[in-house]
Request: fold
Amino acid sequence: MLICLLAGVMTNLNTTAQPLNYRLALDRHWGSAAAALEIQKRQKTKPSTDAAAATADPYLWVTQHTKTYNQHWVEEGRPTAYEPFPDYPYIPTLFKLLDAERIIWFEKSRDLLLSWCCVAYLTRQAMIVPEREVLFQTQKEKKAQQLVKYAKTLYSQQPQWLQDAYPVTKPVWSQPDLELHFVSGGSIIGIPGGADQVRSYHPWGYLLDEASFVVEAGECFNEALSAVRGKIILNSSAGPGWYADARKGIVRSQDE
Reply:
C-alpha cells in the first residue's frame, strides 16, 4: 500500500495539491527548506495573486481565510471548536491602530480576543514578508507556547492553497513548541519573561502579552526598544506593577 501511494504521489506531483501533503507526511526529509521551495515552484492550484489578495488586509484574512479555536465550544453551544474571527465592530479598528502606530499599548478585559488579534497581526507579517521575525513574550514558557500555538492554528486553519502559497519549512505541528518557521525566512519565536530573553534577537515585531504579570516587564520593554525595528505591542488585563504605572505616567524609585 505504501509503495502504491508513493507512486501515485509522484505521478501527480505537478498537477494536484493533495498528493503533496502525502509526500510531506511520508518523507520526513521533504520538510526541508529546499524541498518546500520546490513545492512552491510546482504548486499550480492557485495563482499568487489570489494569495496576496487574501492576505492583503489582516481583518479580511482573519474573518475569511483562517480560524481560531475555542476551548469552551461545547459549553457555549458552538457547532465546532474552529471558527473565523467574529465580526465584532472594534476588531477592524484594532487592526488599523496596529498598522498606524509603531508602539501600541492595550489595556483589556478578558474575552475580547485581544491576544488572538495581536498574534494574528504579527503571524500574518511573518508569513507574507520574507525574512520577517517576530517575538511573542509572556510570563512563563508554557504561556509563550500557547501564543505560538495560536499562530500555528491560524496558519493550519487556512485553506490548503493559501498554505501552499506561504509554505513552512516542515509540518507545523512537527516544529518546536516555541517556533514556527516559513520557507521565505519569516519566523515566530516564543520566549518567557525576562529582559535577558529579548537580547538574543533582533526581530521586526514584538508582542509582550499580559505585561502586568511579566517578570522585568519594564526591562523587557527597554530591550525591545533597542532590538525591534518594526512593531512593539504590549497588552494586559488589569494588574499592579510596571505596566499600570507606565500607562498612567507614574515613575517610581527602585525603593518603592
